[in-house]
UniProtKB/TrEMBL annotation:
<keyword id="KW-0472">Membrane</keyword>
<keyword id="KW-1133">Transmembrane helix</keyword>
<feature type="transmembrane region" description="Helical">
    <location>
        <begin position="343"/>
        <end position="362"/>
    </location>
</feature>
<keyword id="KW-0812">Transmembrane</keyword>
<feature type="transmembrane region" description="Helical">
    <location>
        <begin position="317"/>
        <end position="336"/>
    </location>
</feature>
<feature type="transmembrane region" description="Helical">
    <location>
        <begin position="394"/>
        <end position="414"/>
    </location>
</feature>
<feature type="transmembrane region" description="Helical">
    <location>
        <begin position="420"/>
        <end position="439"/>
    </location>
</feature>
<protein>
    <submittedName>
        <fullName>Cell envelope integrity protein CreD</fullName>
    </submittedName>
</protein>
<dbReference type="InterPro" id="IPR010364">
    <property type="entry name" value="Uncharacterised_IM_CreD"/>
</dbReference>
<feature type="transmembrane region" description="Helical">
    <location>
        <begin position="368"/>
        <end position="387"/>
    </location>
</feature>
<dbReference type="Pfam" id="PF06123">
    <property type="entry name" value="CreD"/>
</dbReference>
Length: 448
């Protein structure tokens, strides 16, 4: 029995295959704590998203604005067939119903000034905005379909103006619409549409106004977050947006006009022009307005990649860092004939896993760059000093430290890149593989 144990111990110490199998097994074992660290990062990231969503919900969610829309009621006579039990026969009666027609502007001009600011809760931060939106334009001469509505059934004196928005609670001013020289107060109404609606009081003299073009104007101050969009309901819709936010993403069905986009560290400016021919809906609807939000356009105030996203991207390279570091130790062991105990491999692997817990915890209270430098310096110093102890050679310790420093530097560069991350990563891995192949040729692989 003792002889068998002695042979097994000798085989483990001297066999290249045995040492490679042990290192491979330990690498698989180290995937367990690495997986726990990844879950920790995801948990903290989800916690941040929940807090940010709660902040945004209380301040004001994303804003989609559609309006103004002219709403004109009309009477419609419908034949209703009912059964009379006394005469045991069906009777046809005429019943009067009130329906509505909706007319969109001929010209619609929107000017939005979006001012952003950060809101903090504990260690979490959200970016919200207050927008000052000035809308003006012209309604065309209102004409119903002659074969559908009789003129005497149109209730001109009960016509109103509608404004639709996705964010009623974010409105911060008393909204009033000016129609020619008449000012109309507005109030919210209940509806089942995608967008919430505020409606004006009836337009008292619209019976005479509708026969000619009618100018309009209203101003809206609204709190929002993430996105500001407009629905292009004008026959010609022109919009401009300016903000102090330096990282916009132009979102929706339509992009700004060529040459109108100006983005700098101080903010951005952009303008749009959309014609009726550019979108697939007409200028008037009867009975109800369909959901037109898919045609909306505007800007998304994107937050640059935050610390959690960067930490999550860094953790995806964790297996690469651990595998290459253990491989460096294995090659040193094979070249120098120094025995490294499996427990020591585990300690080195756990130190490398600790890098990610340090990174996420420090980055919550500082910038990602500072967190990355502090975490990498701590782990780099720990592994280098530990390798000096177990390898008993300062030259090998320097080699381990230099290798680990190059790895952390390489991964940081990849994290910062977006468009060229795959290219740089592939080139870097190719160089690493070539280097390992070069040094491995010095090993006597006959010793199995």
């Amino acid at each position: 029995m003792e002889q068998t144990r002695s042979k097994l111990s000798t085989w483990i110490r001297e066999s290249i295959t045995a040492r490679m199998l042990i290192v491979g097994f330990l690498l698989l074992v180290l995937l367990i704590p690495l997986a726990f660290v990844k879950e920790l990062i995801k948990e903290r990231k989800h916690r941040q998203e929940d807090v940010v969503n709660e902040i945004n919900d209380k301040w004001g969610d994303e804003v989609v604005l559609s309006g103004p829309i002219l709403k004109v009621p009309y009477k419609e006579i419908k034949e209703v067939k009912s059964f009379n039990s006394e005469t045991n026969s069906y009777e046809i009666k005429n019943e009067e119903h009130i329906d509505y027609a909706y007319f969109f502007p001929m010209d619609l001009n929107i000017n939005a000034q979006v001012d952003t600011k950060p809101l903090n809760r504990s260690i979490y931060k959200s970016v919200v905005y207050t927008s000052d939106v000035d809308v003006k334009g012209v309604f065309p001469k209102i004409e119903f379909e002659k074969d559908r509505i009789l003129p005497e059934n149109i209730l001109w004196n009960k016509a109103t103006i509608l404004i639709q928005t996705s964010n009623l609670k974010g409105i911060r001013n008393t909204v009033k619409t000016t129609l020619n020289n008449q000012t109309l107060s507005m109030a919210p109404v209940y509806n089942n549409a995608v967008l919430n609606t505020i409606e004006s009081v009836p337009i008292t003299n619209f019976a005479t106004m509708h026969a000619q073009e009618t100018s309009f104007r209203f101003n809206l101050k609204v709190n929002g977050s993430k996105t500001m969009k407009f629905v292009p309901i004008g026959k010609t819709t022109q919009a401009s947006m300016a903000s102090n936010w330096a990282s916009p993403s132009f979102d929706g069905m339509f992009l700004p006009e060529d040459g109108s986009r100006e983005i700098s560290s101080d903010g951005f400016k952009a303008s749009w022009k959309i014609l009726q021919i550019n979108r697939q809906f007409e200028q008037s609807f009867y009975d109800k307005i369909p959901d037109l939000t898919p045609f909306a356009f505007g800007a998304k105030l994107i937050v640059p990649v935050n610390e959690y996203a960067k930490s999550e991207r860094a953790s995806k390279y964790g297996i690469l860092v651990i595998a290459l570091t253990l491989l460096v130790f294995l090659l040193i062991q094979l070249v120098s004939k120094i025995y490294i105990h499996p427990f020591q491999y585990v300690m080195i692997g756990l130190a490398l896993v600790m890098f990610y817990t340090l990174l996420i915890s420090i980055s919550e209270h500082s910038s990602f760059l500072k967190a990355y430098l502090l975490a990498s310096a701590a782990v780099l110093g720990l592994v280098t000093l530990y390798s000096r102890t177990i390898l008993k050679n300062f030259k090998f310790a320097i080699l381990v430290g230099a290798s680990l420093m190059c790895l952390y530097g390489f991964i940081y560069v990849i994290i910062q890149l977006e468009d060229y991350a795959l290219l740089v990563g592939s080139i870097g891995l190719f160089i690493i593989l070539a280097t390992i192949m070069f040094f491995s040729k010095k090993i006597d692989w006959e010793n199995k």
